[in-house]
């Protein structure tokens, strides 16, 4: 058997390739950032060609660091930022415009028009999603309305849509020559165009949004051989999961009731609900967890927070209060508490559980006492408070009270944040030995499809706890801090007038 599995982890700010062995251990990795493009307030774009180039570079570099060659790869798995939308010309492989990133709010008018004629939840029964700028469907609609060449080429059958997974798989399997145009159920479930029950594009929604079906990729499972990577000599690409579902899979949350929270650019908590589709009454999303080959689909409830690690980057790049993201913990530890101030980072509106595109970010509770340390602490606490709101909604929807929370993502290296998270949730927070669970989930899916691993039980046995934080805060302090947060959130609402 070939020795390694490669996972491409294409995220919002960077692309990584991690090479894993059969024990799920990291052998080598490489990472490259890509540009964040902000043409107008509320608009966020990426260059798809830059992302493609970075994806190829990190695979080659990771192999070079490992001392292995592409002939030692058993298969490749891909995980990706989810709702980010690319439309390209199948003849040339060139995008018609930059990718519209999941955080982008330019589709607010499209969503408002759809809401006006059917309500914010008009598609929720079919898709599990409220109408929001977050999802890919309205982004496709915007591109069709605003890029004339796309509409013309759609009618000729030359335009293709994809989230980043589709874009990468199409290019890596041959591009204009013989590229495979597919996506998996997890990414398709984030378009607001896929029916959760049929696992296919919903014809009624396509008609309402006026999106031609020929533009869309074929929906496949999360673990099967889709095609072969030309530039690596024909290595099979066999795993495809949206990043948050990949983290769920990498955390071995295979049993209904198990949950994980990923702390990245945004913050995303997923709860496995098994083969049951559970509608949310508390502002969560009902979405796909994963589908392994021909096995039944597994669903989950998700709470999505738009800004988590991105707030630390904002502190670094926009306010320049720190020179590196790692410095935020040191600065935050220079004070005992938040000094009575809160930061609510509603830069792109509020996601779960509010779904308010009219909200914008605020700093509140400012006095002359406040200094850089208090601001840094409020930045970290904002992520923990938003997670508490999602957990409250999740427990209300599922009837399951979590006893521990599995965590992963870049921010889990921050001990101050993890302790505060345990305190404000009043449950233990557990970080696994391998924290790169998003890439690991993609590797697991590909490895199952390729026969590299036998079954889910063999993967479950590889998960191990690395560190645990237990709550130490008293109830009175916890309740007071959380009440202050809830009050701060009310100050963000109705900032943007329709």
**Radius of gyration of CA atoms, rounded to a whole number:** 22 Å
Uncertain runs: none
* Average residue pLDDT: 93
Tell me the span between the first and last alpha carbons: 59 Å
Shape: globular
Q: Using DSSP, what is the number of strands?
A: 23
Q: Structural class given helices, strands, pairing?
A: alpha+beta
Strand % is: 15-25%
Q: What's the story with the biggest beta sheet?
A: 7 strands, mixed
How many DSSP H or I helices?
A: 16
- What is the helix content? 25-40%
In the sheet with the most strands, the strands line up as 17-18-16-15-21-22-23
Write a brief structural summary.
The chain is built from 16 helices and 23 strands. It is α+β, with helices and mostly antiparallel strands. The longest helix has 27 residues, at about 370-400.
Report on the structure:
By secondary structure, this protein is an alpha+beta fold. The chain contains 16 helices and 23 strands. The chain has a seven-stranded mixed sheet. It has a six-stranded mixed sheet with strand order 3-2-1-5-14-13, sandwiched between helices.
Blueprint (SSEs and pairs):
Blueprint (H helix, E strand, L loop, with lengths): L3 E7 L3 E7 L5 E8 L11 E2 L1 H19 L6 E8 L4 E5 L9 E2 L7 H9 L7 H4 L8 H11 L1 H8 L3 E5 H9 L9 E3 H4 L5 E2 L4 E2 L1 H7 L8 E3 L2 E7 L5 E8 H8 L8 E5 L3 E8 L10 E6 L7 E8 L3 H9 L9 H6 L9 E3 L17 E3 L7 H27 L6 E4 L6 H11 L3 E4 L4 H13 L6 H5 L4 E5 L5 H16 L8
Parallel strand pairs: 1-5, 5-14, 9-12, 15-21, 21-22
Antiparallel strand pairs: 1-2, 2-3, 4-7, 6-8, 10-11, 13-14, 15-16, 16-18, 17-18, 19-20, 22-23
Helix pairs in contact: 9-14, 10-12, 12-13
């Amino acid at each position: 058997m070939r020795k390694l599995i490669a996972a491409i982890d294409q995220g919002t700010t960077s692309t990584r390739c991690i090479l894993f062995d059969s024990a799920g251990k990291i052998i080598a990795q490489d990472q490259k950032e890509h540009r964040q493009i902000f043409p107008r307030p509320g608009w966020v774009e990426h260059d798809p060609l830059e992302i493609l180039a970075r994806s190829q570079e990190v695979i080659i570099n990771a192999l070079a660091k490992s001392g292995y060659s592409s002939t030692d790869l058993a298969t490749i798995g891909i995980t990706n930022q989810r709702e980010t939308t690319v439309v390209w010309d199948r003849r040339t492989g060139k995008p018609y415009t930059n990718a519209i990133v999941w955080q982008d709010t330019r589709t607010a008018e499209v969503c408002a028009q759809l809401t006006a004629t059917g309500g914010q939840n008009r598609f929720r029964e079919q898709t599990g999603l409220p109408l929001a700028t977050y999802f890919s469907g309205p982004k496709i609609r915007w591109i069709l309305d605003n890029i004339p060449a796309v509409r013309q080429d759609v009618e000729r059958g030359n335009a293709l849509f994809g989230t980043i997974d589709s874009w990468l798989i199409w290019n890596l399997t041959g591009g204009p020559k013989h590229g495979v145009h597919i996506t998996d159920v997890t990414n398709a479930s984030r378009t607001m165009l896929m029916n959760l029950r049929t696992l296919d594009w919903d014809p009624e929604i396509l008609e309402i949004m006026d999106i031609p079906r020929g533009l869309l990729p074929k929906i496949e499972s999360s673990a099967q051989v889709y095609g072969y990577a030309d530039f690596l000599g024909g290595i099979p690409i066999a795993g495809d999961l949206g990043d948050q579902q990949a983290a769920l899979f990498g955390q071995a949350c295979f049993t209904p009731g198990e949950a994980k929270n990923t702390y990245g650019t945004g913050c995303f908590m997923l709860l496995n609900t098994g083969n049951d589709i559970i509608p949310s009454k508390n502002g969560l999303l009902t979405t796909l967890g994963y589908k392994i080959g021909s096995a039944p689909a597994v669903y989950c409830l998700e709470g999505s927070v738009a800004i988590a690690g991105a707030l630390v980057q904002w502190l670094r790049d926009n306010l320049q209060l720190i020179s590196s993201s790692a410095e935020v913990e040191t600065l935050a530890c220079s004070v005992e508490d938040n000094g009575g101030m809160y930061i609510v980072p509603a830069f792109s509106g509020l996601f779960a559980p509010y779904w308010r595109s009219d909200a914008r970010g605020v700093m509140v509770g400012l006095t002359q006492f406040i200094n850089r340390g208090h601001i840094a602490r409020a930045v970290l606490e904002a992520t923990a408070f938003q997670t508490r709101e999602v957990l409250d909604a999740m427990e209300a929807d599922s009837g399951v009270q979590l006893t521990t929370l599995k965590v992963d993502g870049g921010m889990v290296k921050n001990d101050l944040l993890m302790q505060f998270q345990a305190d404000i949730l009043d449950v233990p927070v557990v970080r696994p030995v391998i924290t790169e669970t998003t890439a690991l989930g993609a590797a697991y899916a590909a490895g199952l499809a390729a026969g590299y691993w036998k079954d889910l039980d063999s993967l479950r046995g590889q998960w191990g706890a690395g560190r645990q934080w237990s709550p130490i805060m008293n109830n009175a302090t916890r309740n007071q801090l959380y009440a202050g947060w809830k009050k701060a959130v009310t100050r963000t609402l109705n900032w943007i007038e329709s």
